[in-house]
Amino acid sequence: MTLELYNTLKRTKHIFKPIDPQNVRMYVCGPTVYDYAHIGNARPIIIFDLLFRVLRNYYGPEHITYARNITDVDDKINKRAEEKNISIYQLTEQTIEQFHQDISALNVLRPTVEPKATDHITQMKIMIECLEEKGHAYVAEDHVLFHVPSMENYGKLSGRSIDEMQAGARVEVAPYKKDPMDFVLWKPSKEGEPSWPSPCNINTSGRPGWHIECSAMAAEHLGENFDIHGGGIDLVFPHHENEIAQSTCAHGNADTTEQMANVWMHNGFLQVEGEKMSKSLGNFITIYDTLQDWPGEAVRLTMLQTQYRQPINWTAKGLSESKKQLDKWYSVLKTEETDKQDHDTAICSEVLSALHDDLNTPKAISHLHSLYKHAFEGSKEAAHTLKVSAQLMGLLDQKPEHWFAWKPSRTSLNEAQIAELIIARNAARKNKDFAEADRIRDELIDMGIVLKDGPEGTTWSVS
Ligand code: AMP
Ligand code: ZN
Asked: Which ligand is nearest to the CA of 215?
């Protein structure tokens, strides 16, 4: 069975051929650690965790190197530490700890390496000096800038024209830039900002720009040319375009060298009412808050219900449906006690081929559902196959008792929301729309709320 992946760089799906099947290498841009991660940030984490699992299954777990970085030097971090009156180190360490807790509840595996930007400043400086020596970068007012016109085929990932890129970049055009598209590799730090001795004979101390961080960390852990580079679709331009520019220009002749990574993969947006979930729009919900109301596995399944390149509309209804689906699946595993039998069971070939088709998770899930039906009808074999096939997707990995023991956190209950749902249910009952009334009651049950209808009206309690 082959593995096909969509490559943003080629705009088509191709059979994946690793550079070295003994060491398949993948880099994914990780979080900037200044605040709780939101549920949109969880999408690339879950998607590339799934790909990591599929690659481990195909090539063998010891033959995959997965690097997912942590950006722990950034202006947003400085600002937040100042607001909270804590040190930058305290803020980044707390945020990293929270991030790890959040994503482990989503059953995300630890990557092989999780490099931090601040541990790679030397490698960044070496790369910056190399770019300057080769004429791809220049010093201006204590900054080092990448000179975009020095690279002939800049823009091939996003496929945009220079005009479009200029409009899209929305970068402030500083007077010292030779070209409006030039971007920062290194910048001076003000008093109190994190700083290191600068490269390129600059006397003041400074700090790296964001893009160079990933180029340096990817080269350090995966080499100059590696297999897969991933992230959300918003990273195509300028972040990934600039990573390609820096890495190919530093490591060889940009016009003749292989690209930094052979396959570039990007997940679509997680949306709320048609808009990208983002901190700046204020329409976000954190992973942490979501996990107060929903089991992590239901969040993971909801994320996988949509193929990763499509936009996903995030709703409580979607989460509730996933939770019900998992209730069903776990109910047929209840009677299965032996791990040995699981060990002897093969992953369903239809599930595997769906995942090998550019991670077609909706199709894989529909096969899991067929397996569930057979298991429900009494097939023990189907129950085992369901379990091992779902496990490849990071699902059905816990004991059924554990799954059924999960309860929403009481502290997160939103009384106003409950009251609203009770009013909506009563209105539905008055209109004799009993299906809708039952649906609302079930939604409340999923939130851990039981209703009691009495002569005084409807009251609720935590189940
Ligand atoms: P940021 O914190 O904005 O740098 O994002 C970290 C990662 O999350 C990047 O790979 C982004 O592309 C991804 N990301 C951010 N918001 C969303 C969203 N609403 N949907 C999907 N991916 C997102
Ligand atoms: Zn990156």
From this structure: 2
